[in-house]
Design brief:
Helix content: 55-70%
Order of helices and strands: HHHHHHEHHHHHHEHHHHEHEEH
Low-confidence stretches: 2-8
Radius of gyration: 21 Å
Distance between the termini: 26 Å
Shape: globular
Number of helices: 18
Structural class: mainly alpha
């Protein structure tokens, strides 16, 4: 992806990065009917599969598990709709978007107002080496890692290990960490968001337990939640963690340059793009977050310069899971071994 992206960067910069904002503003208006249909179809199928999985408990636990895993994909799509609500990109009415986002947050185990604030910080600081730590995958530079002590290096290696990032991490994030407004605990608004979501989740689980016992929780709720969480974390990772990503010190950092060049275009098969609500077209989303997800394909179709930059295939994304350290000299994300060779 690196050579391909580099060769196209000049073409993109023929149109100044800030000028893209005016161009992309033509795609920002959501279609109320389309948004309503996307929400109804996704939520309706999600409920239908939940009911089918519950019914199948009387037939086979394996069948229930299989249906639940399929439903994880719809839960991921609901999270993507919640994401658009947080950007006021799903409905023109901000209040309506916010309350839909809060309701979906109960299903995704994500306090909406807490997440919206932390995600806003992510958008306003992505690629800024001076503002790391909230709403991102924490990344050390090569120099920082080399100067760190043994325990700090070990901690970072464990954190960036795929078993932790994509195995243990998603469950911890959605089942445990999201229960508190970490990083925003001084503000009562975010406590209300977190505790209100927690109460709604608890009530829902108690109702499931009362009417169906523990098996629907173990075979439907947990598998679908964990699969959606893992897929969501993976998508977020590959959207910003790739060899030619964009990181700069705060004094050299530019919001729009970081948005355009620091986010990938994850090229997925049509079915996976549908299930992930086009979130793979992430460089366009970061540059203009008010565009509804169903209009993102229009952008890359209409503007070849954007459609051909930062492209990443599934195969390429798997290789990027080995990259962990940002090299400020070469402006590349490196593996631990590559960073060691460079230092030698």
């Amino acid at each position: 992806m690196t050579q391909h992206s580099s060769s196209l960067r000049h073409d993109v910069e023929v149109v100044e990065t800030r000028d893209w904002l005016k161009i992309l503003s033509n795609y920002r208006e959501p279609n109320t009917l389309r948004s309503s249909m996307e929400l109804a179809a996704t939520f309706g199928l999600f409920l239908a599969l939940w009911a089918l999985a519950w019914w199948s408990l009387a037939i086979s636990a394996w069948l229930t598990l299989a249906i639940s895993l399929c439903n994880g994909a719809l839960l991921l799509r609901l999270f993507a709709i919640q994401h658009d609500c947080g950007h006021s990109a799903f409905f023109k009415n901000r209040t309506l978007s916010d309350w839909i986002g809060r309701a979906i947050g109960v299903l995704t185990l994500t306090p909406y107002d807490v997440w919206r604030r932390s995600h806003s910080i992510h958008h306003s600081s992505s690629g800024n080496l001076g503002r790391r730590g909230m709403g991102d995958v924490y990344t050390l530079t090569v120099a920082e890692y080399q100067s760190a002590g043994f325990l700090r290096r070990l901690q970072y290696r464990l954190y960036r290990n795929p078993v932790v990032l994509f195995g243990l991490g998603p469950g911890y994030l959605f089942l445990l960490q999201n229960r508190l407004p970490l990083g925003l605990m001084a503000n009562a608004r975010y406590w209300i968001s977190a505790m209100g979501t927690n109460v709604a989740i608890l009530v829902a689980l108690l109702l499931i337990l009362y009417f169906g016992g523990v098996m629907p929780i173990l075979l439907i709720f947990l598998p679908s939640t964990l699969l959606a969480a893992t897929a969501g974390v993976w998508l977020f990772y590959v959207q910003h963690q790739f060899e030619s990503a964009h990181w700069e010190p705060e004094e050299d950092w530019d919001l729009h340059e970081a948005a355009l060049h620091g986010s990938s275009y994850y090229v997925l098969p049509a079915f996976l793009q549908l299930l992930s609500a086009n979130i793979g077209i992430h460089h366009v989303h970061h540059l203009y977050s008010r565009i509804p997800f169903y209009r993102l394909p229009e952008v890359v179709r209409d503007h070849a310069a954007l459609g051909n930059m930062n492209r990443m295939t599934i195969r390429e994304s798997l290789a990027n899971a080995r990259l962990h350290l940002w090299d400020e000299k070469s402006k590349k994300l490196l593996s631990f071994s590559a960073a060691k060779r460079a230092a030698a």
